[in-house]
Each structure stands twice: as structure tokens, then as C-alpha cells.
């Protein structure tokens, strides 16, 4: 390299320029071979670039040299070198600037005639295109980073313009100019841009900018779909384009927004407008150009397009807001356009006065464009027509319609159509003459043949004026083919088919025009929905959903939807639809009443009553409401709520509802036809007779009794029959089920009255046995006869009335008649579950006399279970069947479980009393797992009995049972009050006097200040009471007498008395077990004073109690554990540890794994303080047993927790001392 450089210097000093040039070229070539790129660049640049002093003479421009490549070729080599990887211009020896290099390159390139067609030019052309792209990219990148963009932008504009002139096929300069053509400071006109785009499209058909202009040409030709495809293709080419700035093209986003708006793609339009706004900001920031030309993009244009999009989205308020912003922009053209568009929108929403105000708010005098002013005045004329000013509308439309040029076919066609519609409403010759309405419709049809409304009015003209039904039908069909949503044509055509009896054709019409859910018209959807409802097809709901999509704020449509939901028994959906209608302003009293009915069926009684109350009180007067109808609905709601409150046990609230409903029904205006109607009497009867299921005390403060209130219901039923007979209804050929039901209501009301009167008077009654006390009371017997008579009248009207057969069975005194009637009720095939319940109870009541009927009762209850498993009578029947075998603990538990199931269905009276009595009777034998359950506590039993007595305060047995429950809870005063109520009944329960005395003793014991004399006196009274009782109380007499002797310090006599009594009982009865328990306790107390007697009695008592345990069933009962604990306490007291521990250990081992863990718990606790038994061994056995994993309840759980705590302490304290026994290892092995 050094020799070559010296040759360059020698020849340069010798002024041998051409030789020097050759050696410079040689240096450049050698440097390229040696990868000395900066040296190569310096050498080549010295031959073509601008140099100072002597080096400037080496330039081929000054000293041409045919032996060297051309200047342009060397420049192109330099450009290639600039793009070589690893080349850095700053490493060159000269001080170079890319801007200067670019300028010098293009100066050299300009001198070449690129239009010439020769091999050399064709060879250089691709390299030239690359070089141009390289320098354009340099200038664009410099522009983006420059802070002074204006000057540089103009430089690039000039460069690009010159390039496209002498090198037309260059890509990036052409794309750049097309991008700049949308700016206000564009260097080219639109015509020049189109010319450049055409050349670019020819040379680079996939150029994004070329595609954009192709798409614009398609838009001008009306080919929106193809234009959109080309625009999307252009967008897809952005990422791969060498001209990265094509992404800053505003035109693409704006035109795509316009296409989306034309297709009513609201979301697409708004998204494109948002993107356009972002592109405008990005372009200004990156290129420094002025904003886009207003015709392409402006804020007012965006507001106008946004308003149109919101209008298409049915967002009227937002659309009007944007139209108003466009009107305030100051742009006259857009102000008029926005005003007209807003007015048209309001006119379509039936708000013509607001639309007219908008038109009048703009000054048309400032509008220079006569076409635009005429369009606004024609819109004003149409608004005047909508407001009823036909003369003013005619003047405006006729004057300005001709000013709209034929080229504006859309506006001119719409105006002619409106002028024709106005002529139709003017009537007379305007309507009938062919030059009037008809002629203008024809002109409009030629201009806008796609306007369906024009053909609808043409069809109407042919139908009404020309009487040409065939042509009218064709016009209507044409209108529907253009727009299935055209209501005028659709309804007229549908009416045609109705008149012609073409129902199926009509249905096909509705189905055809609603095939597309997006465009399905409201008129056809409503008629099709009605057809589907008549066909019981739930698809009607879907059709109405489409209606609401068309007009979601229409309250009438929500009401219709609610009616349809109600027709298909979809109450919740109907309720929501009615609520939506009311929210939208629906104030019809009928809607309120229907909604109240539905809310009542959904148990929303408070909402229902609150909703209908304004109609009843007269506060709501819209639509002239029928207060009588509303009052009946209100009373019925109160009645339905009363039934619900009764099921919840709120009898007082239910009674208030009944009384209010009764007052309302009796207060109906006498002038109303409903006040004396059969329906009103039926409702009054239902209201009054339901009082039978409520508390009699709640009806004693109204000046009449409970029985009288029920009797009023019976009178109302009789009045209903009387009114029905006055109606003059012809006798039915077959059974009259309605009349049968009326007589059944009367019979049932008599039966309610019989039962109520019998309860009040204390007369025992039973619907399931033939033995009653009704014959002793003539009035009650007479009511019963009338009940039977009315049930028979019901059967005369309809022999298959199962309810009447059921009622007849209830009132009959003959057992065979009862069985026959219930069987006949079942055979009718329409029997209710009450029939099976009554039949089962009937068989059950006869089971003591005829044992085989128990199986028939069970079968009846099984049949009832298959019909209605929620009927409490079924579970009550199962429970009573189990009670018949009450000597078995298993059956006792079954009875309690069955009553529990009955109460799961509601507060059934029989279940309340049955469960309470079962728990009181069997609590000592069924075990703690039953009695200790929260739902079986004494507090719950007391609650159940109180709820029962609210409904039936005349039941002495229930009052007696309530007293027992209160006694167990320590409520002695309340218990004595309950016993007093029980004693006031006609038949005092057995054991009442005894329990009263025991409770008095409890009350005395509960007061801390009592004397032995008082207690002894009470005990003497109890003894006297026992003496007056049957012989079965001898054991109790002896126990009480022994206690008296003990209190009198006659312990020996007391022991002898119990010893003799225990020796007499050889049957091992439950009484002897009680005697043994008391005897063992007394023997323990007197062991020191009367050792011999006490020891003998204790031995006999232990033998009896332990024998009971040995003979116990597979599972020890609560009583067995009580016996075992008493024996344990006695043997602890007398110091016989070995005996009771050995016994506990044996029982625990025998029952381990299969019985309760109580025995193991007792053994482990006993072993803690035992001196005779190794505690460690016993505890190890306890830990190894499965007792710890077995469930425990009640007190047993408390014992188990206490034991576990003691075991932990025992291990912590005694573990070191127990190591030699191996206890620790055994415990750890068990725990692992």
C-alpha cells in the first residue's frame, strides 16, 4: 500500500493528474482487497467528491479519464460502501457529512439521462433505486430526530419532487410525496398525487401507499367492499414496507371509518376515528408537518362522523351531543349538515318540535350553497308536517324540492317522497291525482329505488285510491324485499292476508321477514310472538327479546314480554319485565295489579301489597282504575300472605291479615257488579274459613268469636251458590264440576264450624272413628248433618268429585261408609294427597280393634309418599305406626325421627304434639344421642307445645305436657299455670294431680328458705294422692313413704320397707328397677347407722340393677349407664374398689369396638385415683382401644374432654416413674 501511495504523491506533485487518478483507483482497489474500507472510501471519494486545493484537480468532473469508471459508477460504489456492515464514516481520514455526500451524489445523478434506454442505464437503474432509498432513509431519520423540522422537511420535499421527475420509478420518494399529499403544507396537488400513485402502482403494485390510492378510486366508484379489502391489504403491508412512515397515513383510517359508518359498524367506525386521531398526532410530532387538509380530516368532521355512529347505535343523547358540537365548530357547511342530521334524528324519534328548534337555531342566510339551504328548508317543511301544519309544510317542500339538484339523488328522492306523503294527508286531488301523490312517488322511486318506504306508499295508493289489490300487493312485497323492517308495507300485507283468511301465508310472511334477527321488524316479531303463544311455543320469548333489542326503552313491549312470561308460568322473569316497564314510565293500574299477583305468588307479599295499595286508596288515578277489582286482588293477597304466615307459625299476624281482608271485601261498593258476585263471595268464604287454622284467641276482640268468624265464611259460600243460581245458567248436560266445588265449599265450612264448636265446648271428636260426642250437643249434630247434606249435593252435581267423597267420609259416623267414601275418592282418579292421608289415619285408628289394618295404613302412607313426599301426614302416620310398638327402643327412635321429618315440612299440629309427647315419653330410653340433640332439648319441646296451644288451646293433654316440659326447665310457676289450664278441660289427663304435687315440691325446693316440716307436709299430700290412685302406684307409694320415714329419722323402717317391696317384685319390672335405684341410694346414706340392714338392701339392689345391665339390648341405654354409675358410687362409698373396677374393665373389654365409649371413659376416670389397679396399665388399654375415635354426645363428650386433659397431665407428671413399666413405649406406639 505504501508504494502505491508514494506513486500517487509523486504523480500529484508532478501534475500528472491522469496517472495520479489511475494510481488512486489502484489504491482504492487494493484497499478493498485488504478490507481497508475507510482508505478505499477516501480514495474513491477523491475521484468524484468535492476536494480542496490540488486534490480537487483529481475529480473526474474536472479531469475526465476514460480509462476509469464513470463518475456515477464510482458514486454508486461509494453508496454500496456506505451500506457495508462494519463501515464507519468517522474512521475515514477526511471530514465527511452525509448531507453533503447526499447532495453531491444527487448532483451527479441528475446529470444522467435516466429516460435513455441502453444497457448501461438499465444496469445502473436497480443500483440507483437502492441508492435513492438509502439517502431518503437517511434524510427521513434525520427529520424525525431533528428539532428544526421545518427546513429539513422542505429540503426532503424538494428532493423527493426532483427525484420523481428524473427517476420516476423510485419507490420511497413517491410514497413520501403521497403521504405528504394529505397535509395542509403538501408540496403537490391532488392531481399530481394521483399521477405519482399511478406510476408507483405500475412499478410497485404492493406498495401500501399505492394500494391506498387504489382503494380511494374504488370508493369513488362506489365499491366499498373492494375498497375495504385493499385498505386492509395496505395496512397489512405496513410492517414489511421499506417506507416505514406509511404507518402515518391518515387517509387509511379516515376512509375505513367512513366505510364502517356506511355499513353501520359503529364500533369499527369509532375505533378507526380514534386511530386516525392518534396518527395525526404522531405524524405532526415525527415529521413536523402541518395538520391534515380539512376535507380529509378535521375535528368537526370527526364530531359529525361520531354523531352518525352514535345515531346508528341508538344512542340518541350522545349522537345529539356530538351533532351540537359540530354545529358549534364555526364551519358553515358542517353546521348545516349537523343541524339537518340532528333534526332528522329527532324527527325519527317523534320529537318534531325539538327538531324544528334545532333547524331554526342556524342561520341559513349565511349559507352560500343553495342546495344545502334547500335541503335544510325541506327538512323544516317535513317537521312542520309532523307538527300538523300542512300548509306551511306544503309551501316549504314545493318551493325547495326543485332546488335540490338531480345529482343529489338521495336528498332529492327523500324530499319527493315526503312531498308525496304530505299530499296523501292533504287528501282530495292532492291524494287522488296522478300528478300529486302518485306522481311524486314515481319520481322518488326512480331516484332512490332502494327506498322501501316509497313502495309502501305506492302500495297504499294502489290499495286505497286505485283499488288495484294486485299491484298494491306487489308494491308491498317489493318494499319488504328492500327492507323487511318496513312496517307500513308489512302490516298492510299482513292485514291483506287476514282479510283473505290466509293464516298460514301470514305466518310464513312473519317468519320470512324475521329470518335475520339483526333486521327483524318489530311489527312482524309481535305478530309472530302472538302466533307462537297460541301454539304454546316458548320461542315467543325470543321474538320479544328481538323486539326489545329494536326498542329497549319501550315500556309497552316490556309489558307484553311480561304477559308472555306469565303465560309460560315463568313468574320471576315476568316480575322483572313488569318492573322494567314501570321503571320506563308504565303507570297502568292493570300492570300494577298483575305485578302484585306475581309478587304474591313469589311470596313477596309486602312488595305486592305496597305496589297495589295506591290503586286501592285512590292515590293512583291514571287510566281510571277499577278500585273494586284492585280491592279484591288486595284482599286475596292478604289472604295468601295469611296462609304463608300460618305456615311460618305467625298466627297472630295471619289473623290480622284475615280480618283486614274481610273488612275490605265487605266494604266493596254495592254499586259494583263484583261486590255481589260469585267470585267475591267465594273469596270471603275462603278468608273466613281459613280462621279455623289460626288461634281462636286472635278473634275474640272483634265483637264476635272465633266460631262466628268461621260461620261467616260458610254464609258467604251459601251466598255464592245463591248468586250462581240467579245467573240463569242453563243446566249442563254432564257433570257440573264448578257447582260441585261450590257445594263442597259449603260442606267443608260446616265441617270447620263443627270442629271449632266442638273444641270450644270440649266435645271429643274424631274424623277417623265412629265414636264421637257430637250427639250430646244438638246444634253441633245439626251442623254435621248439614255438612253431610252439602257433600252429597256436590256428588249429585259431579259424582267424580273426589273432594266431596273425602268430605263425606269425614262427616260420616259409619265406619263402612267412611271406608267406602275414601275408596271412591281414590277411584275417581283425581284424588288429592289428603285422601290417602285420611285413609291411612282411618286404618291406623282401627288397628287396635283390627290389627291387620295397620298394614293397610302403612300402604296408604306409602302411596301418599309417592304422590307428595312433603305431606306431613305421611310422616305423622309412620311415627304413629312406630308408637304402636313403643316397647322397642328402635321403634321409639323411629317415631321421633318420623315426627322430625314431618316438622321439616312445616309447623304441622300433629307433628308438634306428636314429637313433644314422644320425647317426653321415650326420653329416658332412646339414649343421649337423641335427647341431647339441640332440636330435642326441653326448650324446643316447650316451644313446640306453645305453638301447638296457640292453635288448639282446648287440648288438656297438650297443656299437661307443656307443664311437664316447664317443670324440667325449672319453670315451676309456669308449669303450675299449665297444669291449671289442663285441669280446666273437660277430661283431665291422667297423672295431672300427681305432677302438680311434684311440681309444687320442686317450686318449694327451688326457694332456699324452706323447712323440713313444709317438705314433709307436701310428701304426706303426695302419699295421700297415691293412696287414692290405682294399685299400680304401690311402688311409688313405698318410695315416697320411705322418704318420709327417712325425714322422720326412721331409717331402719325405711330400709325394711324397700327391702320388702323389692322382694315382692319377681317380674323384674321397670318399677322394681326404680325401687332398686332409690334403695341403693338410701342404703349408702344409712350404711354407718344401719350396717346390717343397709348391706342386705344394697346387695339386693345391686343384683337387680346389674341383672338389668346383663340383660340389656345390644346397645346400653341411658338408664343402663345411670344404673352402672349408681352402683359405682355405692361401691366407692363402701370402699369396694376392686369390685367395681374389675366389673368396669370386664364390661369395657366386652363392648370395645362395638359399643359406646362411655364404659372406657368411666374406667379410665376410675383408674386415676385407684390404689388397687395399675393406672398405667388401664390407661394404656384405653389408649389402645377404639373408644377414643368413637363419637360422643352431650355429657359423655364433656367426660371425654375432661379425661383427655387428665391423661395429658398424668403423662407429664408420672412418665419418669413409669418408664420401667414400659408405659411410655406403649403410649408412643399407640399415638404413632
UniProtKB/TrEMBL annotation:
GO terms for biological process: RNA catabolic process. The keyword Amino-acid biosynthesis does not apply. One of its GO terms (cellular component) is Ski complex. Keywords: Repeat, TPR repeat. InterPro entries: Ski3/TTC37 (IPR039226), TPR-like_helical_dom_sf (IPR011990), TPR_rpt (IPR019734). PANTHER family: SUPERKILLER 3 PROTEIN-RELATED, SUPERKILLER COMPLEX PROTEIN 3. This is Uncharacterized protein. It comes from Phytophthora nicotianae (strain INRA-310).
Amino acid at each position: 500500500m505504501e508504494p502505491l501511495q508514494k506513486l500517487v504523491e509523486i504523480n500529484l506533485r508532478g501534475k500528472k493528474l491522469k496517472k495520479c487518478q489511475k494510481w488512486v483507483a489502484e489504491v482504492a482497489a487494493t484497499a478493498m482487497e485488504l478490507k481497508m474500507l475507510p482508505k478505499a472510501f477516501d480514495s474513491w471519494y477523491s475521484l468524484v467528491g468535492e476536494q480542496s486545493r490540488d486534490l480537487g484537480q483529481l475529480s473526474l468532473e474536472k479531469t475526465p479519464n476514460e480509462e476509469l469508471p464513470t463518475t456515477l459508477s464510482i458514486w454508486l460504489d461509494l453508496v454500496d460502501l456506505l451500506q457495508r456492515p462494519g463501515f464507519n464514516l468517522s474512521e475515514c481520514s477526511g471530514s465527511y457529512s452525509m448531507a453533503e455526500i447526499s447532495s453531491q451524489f444527487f448532483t451527479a445523478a441528475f446529470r444522467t439521462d435516466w429516460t435513455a434506454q441502453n444497457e448501461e442505464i438499465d444496469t445502473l437503474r436497480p443500483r440507483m433505486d437502492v441508492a435513492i432509498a438509502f439517502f431518503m432513509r437517511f434524510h427521513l431519520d434525520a427529520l424525525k430526530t431533528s428539532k428544526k423540522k421545518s427546513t429539513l422537511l422542505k429540503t426532503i420535499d424538494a428532493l423527493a419532487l426532483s427525484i420523481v421527475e428524473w427517476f420516476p420509478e423510485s419507490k420511497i420518494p413517491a410514497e413520501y410525496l403521497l403521504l405528504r399529499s394529505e397535509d395542509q403544507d403538501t408540496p403537490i396537488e391532488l392531481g399530481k398525487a394521483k399521477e405519482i400513485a399511478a406510476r408507483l402502482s405500475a412499478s410497485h403494485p404492493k406498495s401500501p401507499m399505492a394500494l391506498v390510492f387504489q382503494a380511494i378510486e374504488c370508493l369513488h366508484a362506489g365499491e366499498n367492499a373492494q375498497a375495504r379489502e385493499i385498505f386492509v391489504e395496505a395496512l397489512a403491508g405496513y410492517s414489511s414496507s421499506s417506507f416505514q412512515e406509511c404507518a402515518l397515513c391518515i387517509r387509511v383510517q379516515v376512509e375505513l371509518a367512513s366505510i364502517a359508518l356506511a355499513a353501520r359498524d359503529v364500533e369499527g367506525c369509532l375505533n378507526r376515528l380514534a386511530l386516525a386521531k392518534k396518527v395525526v398526532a404522531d405524524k405532526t410530532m415525527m415529521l413536523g408537518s402541518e395538520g391534515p387538509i380539512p376535507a380529509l380530516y378535521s375535528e368537526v368532521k370527526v364530531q359529525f362522523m361520531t354523531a352518525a355512529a352514535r345515531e346508528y347505535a341508538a344512542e340518541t343523547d350522545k349522537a345529539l351531543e356530538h351533532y351540537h358540537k359540530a354545529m358549534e365548530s364555526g364551519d358553515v357547511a358542517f353546521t348545516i349538515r349537523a343541524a339537518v342530521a340532528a333534526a332528522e334524528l329527532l324527527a325519527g324519534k317523534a320529537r318534531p318540535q325539538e327538531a324544528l328548534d334545532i333547524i331554526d337555531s342556524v342561520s341559513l342566510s349565511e349559507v352560500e350553497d343553495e342546495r344545502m339551504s334547500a335541503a335544510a328548508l325541506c327538512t323544516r317543511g317535513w317537521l312542520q308536517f309532523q307538527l300538523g301544519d300542512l300548509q306551511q309544510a306544503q309551501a316549504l317542500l314545493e318551493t325547495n324540492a326543485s332546488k335540490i339538484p338531480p345529482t343529489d339523488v338521495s336528498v332529492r328522492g327523500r324530499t319527493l317522497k315526503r312531498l308525496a306523503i304530505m299530499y296523501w294527508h292533504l287528501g282530495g286531488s292532492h291524494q287522488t291525482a296522478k300528478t300529486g301523490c302518485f306522481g311524486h312517488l314515481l319520481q322518488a322511486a326512480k331516484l332512490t329505488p332502494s327506498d322501501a318506504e316509497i313502495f309502501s306508499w305506492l302500495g297504499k295508493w294502489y290499495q286505497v285510491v286505485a283499488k288495484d289489490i294486485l299491484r298494491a300487493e306487489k308494491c308491498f312485497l317489493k318494499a319488504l324485499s328492500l327492507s323487511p323492517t318496513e312496517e307500513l308495507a308489512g302490516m298492510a300485507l299482513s292485514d291483506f292476508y287476514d282479510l283473505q283468511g290466509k293464516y298460514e301465508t301470514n305466518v310464513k310472511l312473519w317468519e320470512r321477514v324475521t329470518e335475520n334477527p339483526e333486521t327483524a321488524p318489530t311489527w312482524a316479531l309481535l305478530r309472530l310472538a302472538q302466533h307462537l303463544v297460541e301454539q304454546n311455543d316458548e320461542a315467543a320469548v325470543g321474538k320479544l327479546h328481538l323486539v326489545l333489542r329494536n326498542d329497549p326503552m319501550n315500556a309497552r313491549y316490556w309489558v307484553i314480554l311480561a304477559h308472555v312470561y306469565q303465560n309460560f308460568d315463568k313468574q320471576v322473569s315476568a316480575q322483572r319485565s313488569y318492573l322494567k316497564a314501570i321503571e320506563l314510565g308504565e303507570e297502568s293500574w292493570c300492570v300494577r295489579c298483575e305485578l302484585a299477583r306475581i309478587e304474591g305468588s313469589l311470596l313477596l307479599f309486602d312488595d305486592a301489597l305496597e305496589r297495589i295499595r295506591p290503586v286501592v286508596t285512590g292515590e293512583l288515578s291514571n287510566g281510571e282504575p277499577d278500585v273494586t277489582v284492585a280491592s279484591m286482588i288486595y284482599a286475596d293477597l292478604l289472604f295468601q300472605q295469611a296462609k304463608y304466615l300460618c305456615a311460618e307459625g305467625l298466627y297472630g299476624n295471619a289473623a290480622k291479615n284475615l280480618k283486614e281482608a274481610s273488612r275490605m271485601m265487605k266494604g266493596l261498593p254495592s254499586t259494583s257488579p263484583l261486590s255481589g258476585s260469585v267470585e267475591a263471595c267465594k273469596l270471603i268464604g275462603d278468608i273466613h274459613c281459613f280462621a279455623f287454622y289460626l288461634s281462636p284467641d286472635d278473634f275474640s276482640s272483634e265483637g264476635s268469636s272465633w266460631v262466628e268468624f268461621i260461620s261467616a265464611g260458610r254464609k258467604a259460600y251459601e251466598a255464592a251458590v245463591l248468586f250462581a243460581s240467579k245467573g240463569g245458567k242453563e243446566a249442563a248436560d254432564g257433570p257440573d264440576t264448578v257447582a260441585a266445588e261450590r257445594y263442597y265449599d259449603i260442606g267443608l265450612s260446616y265441617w270447620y264450624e263443627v270442629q271449632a264448636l266442638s273444641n270450644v265446648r270440649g266435645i271429643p271428636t274424631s274424623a277417623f272413628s265412629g265414636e264421637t260426642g257430637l250427639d250430646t250437643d244438638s246444634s253441633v249434630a245439626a251442623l254435621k248433618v248439614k255438612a253431610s247434606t252439602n257433600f252429597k249435593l256436590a256428588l249429585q252435581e259431579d259424582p267424580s268429585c273426589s273432594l266431596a267423597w273425602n268430605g263425606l267420609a269425614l262427616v260420616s259416623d259409619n265406619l263402612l261408609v267412611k271406608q267406602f267414601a275414601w275408596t271412591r275418592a281414590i277411584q275417581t282418579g283425581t284424588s288429592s294427597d289428603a285422601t290417602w292421608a285420611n285413609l291411612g289415619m282411618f286404618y291406623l285408628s282401627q288397628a287396635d280393634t283390627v290389627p291387620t289394618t295397620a298394614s293397610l295404613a302403612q300402604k296408604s302412607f306409602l302411596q301418599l309418599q309417592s304422590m307428595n313426599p312433603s305431606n306431613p301426614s305421611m310422616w305423622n302416620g309412620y311415627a304413629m305406626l312406630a308408637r304402636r310398638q313403643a316397647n322397642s327402643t328402635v321403634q321409639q327412635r323411629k317415631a321421633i325421627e318420623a315426627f322430625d321429618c314431618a316438622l321439616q315440612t312445616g309447623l304441622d299440629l300433629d307433628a308438634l304434639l306428636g314429637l313433644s309427647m314422644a320425647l317426653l315419653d321415650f326420653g329416658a330410653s332412646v339414649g343421649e344421642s337423641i335427647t341431647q340433640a339441640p332440636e330435642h332439648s326441653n326448650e324446643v319441646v316447650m316451644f313446640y307445645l306453645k305453638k301447638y296451644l296457640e292453635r288448639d288451646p282446648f287440648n288438656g293433654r297438650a297443656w299437661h305436657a307443656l307443664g311437664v316440659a316447664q317443670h324440667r326447665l325449672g319453670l315451676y310457676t309456669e308449669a303450675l299455670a299449665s297444669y291449671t289450664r289442663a285441669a280446666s278441660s273437660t277430661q283431665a289427663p291422667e297423672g295431672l294431680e300427681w305432677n302438680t304435687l311434684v311440681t309444687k315440691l320442686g317450686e318449694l325446693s327451688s326457694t332456699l328458705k324452706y323447712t323440713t316440716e313444709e317438705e314433709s307436709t307436701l310428701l304426706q299430700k303426695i302419699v295421700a294422692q297415691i293412696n287414692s290412685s290405682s294399685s299400680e302406684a304401690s311402688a311409688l307409694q313405698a318410695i315416697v313413704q320411705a322418704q318420709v320415714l327417712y325425714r322422720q329419722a326412721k331409717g331402719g323402717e325405711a330400709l325394711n320397707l324397700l327391702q320388702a317391696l323389692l322382694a315382692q317384685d319377681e317380674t323384674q319390672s321397670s318399677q322394681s328397677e326404680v325401687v332398686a335405684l332409690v334403695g341403693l341410694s338410701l342404703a349408702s346414706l344409712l350404711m354407718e347407722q344401719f350396717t346390717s340392714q343397709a348391706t342386705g338392701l344394697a346387695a339386693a339392689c345391686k343384683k337387680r340393677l346389674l341383672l338389668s345391665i346383663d340383660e340389656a339390648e345390644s346397645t346400653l341405654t341411658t338408664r343402663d349407664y345411670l344404673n352402672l354409675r349408681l352402683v359405682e358410687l355405692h361401691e366407692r362409698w363402701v370402699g369396694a374398689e376392686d369390685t367395681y373396677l374389675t366389673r368396669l374393665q370386664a364390661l369395657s373389654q366386652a363392648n370395645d369396638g362395638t359399643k359406646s365409649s362411655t364404659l372406657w371413659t368411666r374406667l379410665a376416670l376410675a383408674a386415676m385415683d385407684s390404689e388397687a389397679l395399675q393406672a398405667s396399665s388401664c390407661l394404656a388399654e384405653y389408649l389402645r382401644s377404639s373408644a377414643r375415635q368413637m363419637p360422643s354426645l352431650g355429657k359423655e363428650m364433656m367426660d371425654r374432654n375432661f379425661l383427655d386433659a387428665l391423661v395429658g397431665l398424668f403423662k407429664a407428671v408420672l412418665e419418669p416413674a413409669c418408664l420401667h413399666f414400659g408405659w411410655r413405649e406403649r403410649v408412643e406406639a399407640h399415638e404413632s
